[in-house]
Specification:
Blueprint lengths: L2 E4 L9 E7 L6 E2 L4 E6 L4 E5 L4 E6 L6 E3 L3 E6 L66 H9 L18 H10 L35 E2 L7 E2 L3 H16 L2 E9 L1 H18 L6 H14 L5 E3 L4 E3 L5 E3 L1 E3 L2 E3 L2 E2 L7 H16 L13 E4 L19 E5 L3 E7 L2 E15 L5 H16 L9
Parallel strand pairs: 14-18, 18-19
Antiparallel strand pairs: 1-8, 2-4, 2-7, 3-6, 4-5, 6-8, 9-10, 11-21, 12-13, 14-17, 15-16, 19-21, 20-21
Helix pairs in contact: 5-6, 5-7
């Protein structure tokens, strides 16, 4: 019996993934830990490795299909013994103490890790294996791609026998049913419980498998349609979740960063020669934000329903415009790093984000997000909070402006700080206290500010 490879749990709030690209095709030989398929989640693009050496015999999830964690992806025929902790038809994890080679960008992914809830409030209760239909209402448990295929052939899925995990109806089941019916469409019986355009109980609203990235679809003569890429679809869903679940409030302060500009200019050339890394303004700001979060812990928190969860670690997410879309890699324990250390960490993360080489660890456990919108020329912005965090801060473009200093007009380098915050966790007083803490530290930067 072939070994079934499943989409593994990743231990965070990720509950599903989109099949991006198959790296192997049926008939291809695969080595143990060799990447099989790229899967796109709302956090990162990851590669799923093969746990055994063998031959890929069947693909069970097509490119563009949205599948839940734990869903079967492919079947591999192997002459090796099934590794300890695994059974035929089941993917498992390496045994304790076993050396696991690196696999692409993600390493080896565990299949028995319980994910936490989407709000970070605790583990999700284990659900029984999905079944093909419910005896009480006849509802079907099928993927969006299978549902679409059934609609194309006008098939009533209640007549199709599922051979997938837990009786789930697969694409092959629908194809076999169509062929056995001689190509004749099966009229869909009207049902108050399920229609082609309704959501299946227990699933989100149905989503069509997206067309290949960048593919254009037909539109009106004066319109042009561009299909959603998997990453753009996930970004859209994350933004809707944030604004629909978090009551956003907004605040802004103006900061005199003349001292920051002078300090960076004085050490930039020497720093680049010694470290091989350009010293931008952002490491200074990250350092200041991390120190200010220690003083204002309710900004480094999440909403827990009946409680506020204060995070003891300060893990700053940095928004990066990658080629595939916006992604937020995380600098863990940012408050423990010097400005030089933050410059190295920032360059490493941004480079790997733009090269699509981030690991899951790089995008997990963020507690606060910082976005340097000033690099795009922005002077004021109103960002959307990175759910389920308590706030997000943007640093705007530095501009020379006339300001009043000691009752005299002076030309100073000025920058706006804009922050959206969760009004369930913080009121204006707490938000303003944090912004004033950041402002005070930025304006205190001078010739003696330590870089290392």
């Amino acid at each position: 019996m072939p070994l079934v490879i499943e989409l593994p749990q990743v231990g965070e709030s990720v509950v599903e993934g989109t099949i991006g690209k198959w790296l192997k095709q049926p008939g291809d030989q695969v080595d143990r830990y060799e990447p099989l398929v790229e899967v796109i989640t709302d956090k990162v693009t990851m590669e799923v490795p093969s746990p055994v050496k063998g031959t890929l015999v069947k693909i069970l999830a097509e490119e563009g299909e949205v599948v839940p964690m734990g869903a079967p992806l492919a079947e591999i025929e192997t002459s090796e013994g099934i590794p300890e902790g695994m059974a035929e038809g089941k993917q498992g994890a390496p045994t304790p103490g076993e050396a696991v080679p690196s696999s692409g960008t993600t390493g080896y992914l565990l299949s028995d890790v319980k994910p936490v809830g989407p709000t970070g409030g605790g583990p999700v209760e284990e659900q029984p294996a999905p079944v093909a239909r419910s005896s009480s209402n006849g509802a079907l448990r099928v993927s969006p791609a299978v549902r679409r295929l059934a609609r194309q052939h006008n098939i009533d899925l209640s007549f199709v026998v599922g051979t997938g995990m837990g009786g789930r109806i697969t694409r092959d089941d629908v194809v076999e049913y169509v062929e056995s019916a001689g190509g004749q469409p099966q009229a869909v019986a009207p049902s108050p419980n399920l229609s082609p355009d309704q959501a299946v109980p227990g699933e989100d609203a149905p989503r069509e498998a997206p067309a290949p990235a960048g593919e254009e679809t037909a539109g009106a003569a004066d319109e042009e349609y561009v299909s959603l890429t998997p990453v753009r679809r996930l970004i859209a869903e994350a933004m809707v979740r944030s604004v629909s679940q978090i009551p956003h409030a907004w605040s802004m302060v103006e900061v005199d960063v003349s001292g920051l500009v002078a300090r960076r200019a004085a050490v930039r050339s020497d720093f680049e020669q010694r470290n091989g890394v350009d010293l931008t303004y952002l490491p200074f700001i990250i350092k200041v934000v991390a120190e200010s979060l220690r003083e204002n812990p309710t900004l480094n928190a999440t909403w827990g329903g009946d409680k506020i969860i204060l995070k003891r670690r300060i893990n700053l997410g940095i928004a990066v415009a990658a080629p595939t879309g916006l992604i937020v890699p995380v600098i863990h324990d940012a408050d423990r790093l010097s400005i030089a250390g933050l410059a190295h960490a920032l360059r490493d993360l941004t480079q790997r984000a733009r090269q699509n080489r981030l690991t899951l660890e790089d995008v997990q456990q963020g507690t606060f997000t910082l976005n340097n919108t000033g690099a795009l020329g922005s002077t004021v912005s109103q960002p959307i909070i990175n759910h389920p965090q308590a706030a997000i801060l943007t640093t705007e473009a530095i501009q020379k402006r006339p300001v009043v200093v000691n009752d005299a007009i002076a030309i100073r380098a000025m920058m706006n700080l804009c922050m959206s915050f969760d009004h369930r966790i913080n009121d204006g007083a707490e938000a303003s206290g944090f912004l004033q803490s950041v402002k005070g530290r930025l304006e205190a930067i001078g010739p003696d500010t330590a870089i290392y």
